[in-house]
Amino acid sequence: MLNPSLILAMLMQVGPNPLAGGLPGDDLVRDRPPRAEAANTELNATSAWLESCLDQLEQDPARAHTTAQIRRSETTGTDRVLANHCLGLAASELGLWDDARAAFAAARAETPEGEARTRARYAALAGNAALAGGDAAGAEGLLRLAEAEAQAAGSAPLQAIAATDRARALVTLGRGEEALAPLDTATTAAPERAEGWLLKATLLRRLDRLAEAQTAIERAATLSSGAAGIGPEIGLEAGVIAVLGGRDEAARQSWQSVIDLAPEHPAAATARGYLAQLGPAGETAPAPAEESPPS
Q: Where are the domains of the chain?
């Protein structure tokens, strides 16, 4: 028999960490401005400084944080924007979320209005910092701005990332139904990103819309590369959706696949726990009673 505490744990599970936005691990974070022409010494020096600060960030984020602060106080224009860029990344590495948010917001404000994609990227980074710092409402506003600017710039991948992270903020605020709209935007703008489909499946499951959740998780599984990336989270969520729908054997298979593909992944430990509570094959667990998703 399925343990009631397991049902509650499954309903509360939200898939990937809702505070871990897509941008920190995304190539967009370290996206450099275009290389300057050899004749433009000033821009070459600016680009070289950013490269140096980013390299320093990997070795000693505290030192990079100080270096970027000094650079910011002594420069203007593009130099100051990129100083804030490195400062925000260093602050994020150090867990100084208010500093990171302020640095990314300043970088956006000082980026020319005609550079919508860059402004969107900084707004998204500021929103992620706000979310990590516990200000989900502030994050939602920044990420809404990032979505709009990314759309204006014609950058579908960045629009999808910002929309996905805005959905995380809305879920954190207890506004799950509203979070479906940005997830629809994310999966439409970048249908090849498995993360958007995984989060959509997780949210639909929390809203007790299991048939739609099943469709979304199947799409995520098709796009996933197995053990790499978010494959284990997809397998874990697929099992949760299956067991809540009364399909115990499908749940067992999904959770076992997580263990087989990525035995050291945190999702594998959760899968082992779920399998232990579900019981051996051949036992039929009753379908869980309807519960409202936790706020």
A: 1-16+193-295, 17-190
**Helices 4-12 and 266-278: angle between axes, nearest 10 degrees:** 150
For residues 65 and 71, what is the distance between their CA atoms, to the nearest angstrom?
10
Integer Cα distance of 158 and 143 in angstroms: 11
The DSSP string of 108-149 is HHTS-TT-HHHHHHHHHHHHHHHHHTT-HHHHHHHHHHHHHH
Cα-trace Rg, the chain = 21
Residue at 56: amino acid letter: Q
pLDDT in tens, 110-141: 999 999 999 999 999 999 999 999 999 999 99
Q: Can you give the pTM of this predicted structure?
A: 0.79
- CATH 3.40.30.10 describes domain 17-190: no
Which of 149, 157, 148 is closest to 186 using CA atoms?
157
Question: Quick one: DSSP state of residue 288?
Answer: P
